[in-house]
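Hi, here's the filled form for the chain we discussed.

Project: internal
Contact: R.S.
Residues: 517
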Amino acid sequence: MRAPLTELDGRSFDVIIVGGGVVGASAAQHIASGGRTTLVVDKGDFGSGTSSRSSRLLYSGLAYFSPDYALWRFAYRPKDLLQRLRMAKLSMECRTELASTMPERVSRHSFFFPVFEGGEYPGWKVDLGYRALGLFGSSKVPLSYRRLPAAEAARQFGMVGLMDSKRLASVAVFDEYQYQWAERICLDTMLDAERCGATIRNYTTATRLDPLPGGGWRVTLEDATSPGTTATVEAATLVNTAGPWADRLLRKTSGPVPTKKHLVGIKGVNLVVKLPDSCRGTGFEMISSIGQPFYCMPWGDHHFFGPTETIFEDEPGSVRVLPEEAEFIIAEANRALPSLSLTTQDIVYRWAGVRPRTTSETASGVKSLMIHDMATEGMPGALTVTGCPIMTHRHAGRTIAARVAQMGQASGAPTPLSYAAKPMPGDAPLSSERLRHAAMHEQVETLIDLLFRRVPVGWTPGMGLADARQAAETVADLLGWDEARIGHEVEAYRRFIAENFQPRALPADAASSEVAA
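And the returned structure, exactly as it came back:
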C-alpha cells in the first residue's frame, strides 16, 4: 500500500520521474536498475492516461511502409527512407521482445489488408511493404505474410467474406499481436521498477518545479486523494514523461518557462461492436476514405473499429467521443464490411484517448521518440519525452536511462531488472484472492483502479458494472472502506463508465447519476 506522502518530505533522489504511464514506468525500471535512487509519481493512477487508451496493437510497423506513400519521394528524401527503415526495424524488434518475454500479456491473430481492383494500392506495392517488414522479423514472432486471391481468402476467413466481393482482388494475410491488457503491462513494469529500488507513488501531483542554485530540482508534491497534504523532494535530474500533459507540466517551473511546443495531441476514437462469430479472433488494417489508417481489432468475442486522427489541444483528461466521430467510424466500417449495415445502435461501448506525438513541420506531428534536453530552454538537468507509442516503451526506457547516465553518477549499485509478467494469484479475475492481493500490494486507491488496471474486468462488454459492489466489498476491510465509502466507490465507478464509455447497456441508475453529477 502507499506510504503517507509526508514520509517523502525532504528526501533526495538521483532522479525524479513525473508521469506514470508505460514510458515513465519503463524509464523508472531501467534507471533504478542502473543503481540510481528514483522516484516516480503520477497525478492519477499508473497507466490511466494514454497507456490505457491505445489501439492495443503490438504493431508490426506497417505504417512506416504505408502503401499511400509515393515511392518517388524516397529519391528526393533519402533520409526519410532511412528513418522509415529504422522505425520499422525498431517496431518489429520491440514486437518480438514483448511477445517473447510477456507471452501472457499478448495474443496472436490473423489480420488482413484488402487489395481492391483498380485501387490506389496495387498488390505488388503491398507485397513490397510486407516483405520489407518481414526482413526485420523473427522465427519466434513471425509475420507469416502471404497474399491470397479474394475467393480463396473468403473461403478461409469469415471476415473476408463480408468485404465487397465485387471490388476485392486479393487479400494480404499476416499475423499481428495484441496487448490483452495494456494497463497491466504498465503496472508489471512499475512493480519491477519498485523491486529494483524505485519509490513509486500514484495520485501524487507535481504542483511546482523549482531549479536549485547548485543544479538539480526541488519538486513540490500534493496528495491528490488528500488535498492540502504536500511534500517537497529534490533530485539532480528531472524526467518529464507526462505524455499529453508534458507541456503543461513544464509551465509549473518557477524558473524560465519554456515557450517551445514539444508535442501535439492526436485524438483517437474506438468503437466496440459485436460482429458475426465467423469473424472472431481476426481483424483488418486498411486506409480510410480520407487517407488515414483504419482498423478492425478483435476484442474477445467482440471487435472494435477506429481510430480517428484529429488534433486535440484541450485538457487531455476531458477527451470524449463526439457523435459525429462515432458516425464517421461506423460509416468507414460499413465501407469495409458493407454487408453488415452497422449503425450507431450497434456500439457496445466507445472510448477516446490522446496520443502525444512529437511536434514537427507537419501539423499532426510525428510518431517518433524524442528526448528533449531542457537545458537549451533554461531548465538544465531536465528531460522531456514525447512521441513514444506503447509498443516501443522498453526502447524508450533504455534510451532515457542512457541519457540520464550521461548527466551524473549513480549513488547505488545496479540491480538486474526483469521483463517478465508479474504473477497474479487466483484462477479468475474476480477471485477474492486476486482482488485482495491487488489491494494489499499494488497501490489501489479506487474501485476504478481495481477493476480497470489491477484485474481485467473494466474492458469486458459488461464493463464490470454487475460486479462492482461485490468487488468493493471484497477489499473494503483492507482499504478502510466503510459502507458509505463502498457506496461512493460503486457510484463513482458507474459515473466513470457512463461519462467515458457511454455503454449501450448502461443501468438506469448509472445514467441518472451521470446527469446528477
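Let me know if anything looks off before we file it.
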